[in-house]
Amino acid sequence: MNKLKVVIAGGGTAGWMTAAALGKLLGKNLDITLIESDLIGTVGVGEATIPTLHLYHRLLGLQETDVMAATNATFKLGIMFENWRDVGKDYLHSFGFLGKDCWACGFQHFWLKGMQQGLASDIGDYCPEHLAARAGRFAVLPNQDQNHAYHLDATLYAKFLRSFAEQHGVKRLEGMITQVQQWDEQAGDKAGYIKALQLDNGMLLEGDLFIDCTGFKALLIEQTLLTGFDDWTHYLPCDSAIAVQTTQTQALVPYTRSIAHGAGWQWRIPLQTRVGNGLVFSSKFLSDADAIELLKANISGELINEPRVIKFRTGTRRKHWNKNCVAIGLSSGFLEPLESTSIHLIQRSIIRLLQLMPSGPDLVNADIDEFNHQTMIEMHNIRDFIILHYKVTERRDTPFWRHCAAMEVPESLSHRIEMFGESGKVYKFAQELFGESSWIQVMLGQGITPKRYHPIVDQMSPDELASFLQNIRQGVLRHVQNWPAHTDFLRHYAATKVDKEPPSAVSGSDVLKAMPMIKSSMSAG
Predict the structure, then answer these.
(1) How far is CA 128 from CA 77, 156, 478, in A?
(2) CA-CA distance, 64 to 277, in Å (whole number)?
(3) What are phi and psi of 369, to 5 degrees?
(4) Buried b or exposed e, range 278-287, using 16+ CB within 10 angstroms
(5) pLDDT range class, residue 45, cuts 50, 70, 90
(6) CATH 3.50.50.60 region(s) of the chain?
(7) Whole-angstrom distance between the N-terminal and C-terminal Cα of the chain?
(8) DSSP state, residue 330
(9) Is the pLDDT of residue 279 over 70?
């Protein structure tokens, strides 16, 4: 039986993540070719990830230490949102789970009554990842839940995966795509399908299934197939970004910083030897020139490269799989990087494609429809979570924030906001990315305090509630106290292959005190 010919148009993170997975997991049944040109740059700023990336790495059999050392990576336990609720009011959205739930309600209901009676502290004190992020501590232990992610160099990550993919039979062609050929009406059911890609060197590459990883250009899915695009700018008004890299001058915190400004927000992502910086903003409220000056005034360290402007439009393709073309990455749509979901969406599309991969050149329409249905549900859910940060705010200090507070939002989000505000209830549905703990942390952090808690909490006496909350908090504290400083664990675990060491948050003697406890925990596990 002839192998299914898969052609991946474009490299970068999306292209090489796709190639690596297809080559490793289905390579015996596929003929895979990736086309990219060294003359075409990539966006290359998707440097913060979320814990779901562990699934992708496990599928490929990649070792965490190898990936981190190769990509200049640090650990990430969440995102610090500064000035989002209001100027001077910050909160942390961490990974992991809050406290302990019961069959009838979530932990937030016990915490709410505890706060009312003076028995509880900050809700983050009941989550190990939240406390560890604030304390600058981290460790990887046997049998530990993988509730951590990474800050990594996206360009190095693509390079790492390219080597892996080529080891698993993926062929790379250097060249520019100059023409996309389609089947004509005489091809019957295949009429309009993509037939081949013409390269600038004269080569014609035919295929059965084409993967569009051409970024915002969307050469196959949009320019050729005219798939259509749903614009979400009315919900997410930012349409521009400035990106720049600087030298590392500060201690490596295990979280991303998201700092709200007058017309958008700034990211600060610490890698082992440098920092990724950027400003996401609305061009209706801030010019490119002013945005560059604003970003320069709010970064530390020396510039490694010149700031560059990236223009985007938030939204989604109306189909992510159209005919024999699957869009993965920026070609499929864009949701701004506020919650670090870009690489996750690439990964989910890859896994979804693997699950629905055709067994031959004859595609199954029901499979294509299911791919599109699942992808669209996920896009809408992530969209709503990001909109939440803008809509629920006490800021009224600039026209941008007044616009965000007054804008209409999807009914699906309005329902969640109202339900949590009235009764403290949050529910996660099967295909959603963000769990109840995430929604709770952001809604509380943005200023929503539920009016009431679940009545089952009143079954506890005040002493029982106090003991319940205290035991959880002390358990979290004991757990995190056994972890060394993030920077020192990183050096011990997966230091990048460079000479310069990152700044340390604590002294070496403090780490030595913590290391015996780490070893004890590892042997006990």
Answers:
(1) 10, 30, 9
(2) 24
(3) -65, -40
(4) bbbbbbebbe
(5) low
(6) 4-47+153-232+315-363
(7) 48
(8) G
(9) yes
Output phi, psi for 135, to 5 deg: -85, -10
Pairing of strands 149-151, 89-94: unpaired
Of residues 24, 76, 323, 425, which has the active-site annotation?
A: 76
108, 442 Cβ separation under 8 angstroms? no
Question: Distance between CA 57 and CA 61 in Å, rounded?
Answer: 6
Q: Are 476 and 127 in contact (CB under 8 A)?
A: yes
Q: Catalytic: 217?
A: no
Is 3.50.50.60 the CATH number for 4-47+153-232+315-363? yes
pLDDT digits (tens, 9 = 90+) for 329-364: 999 999 999 999 999 999 999 999 999 999 988 999
In 11-106, alpha helices (H)? 12-26, 53-60, 64-70
Closest CA to 208 of 370, 33, 17: 33
Predicted confidence (pLDDT) at residue 508 exceeds the cutoff of 60: no
Residue 443: C-alpha distances to residues 237, 386, 414, 433, 434 (Å)? 20, 11, 12, 16, 13
pLDDT at 431: 80
DSSP type of residue 30: E
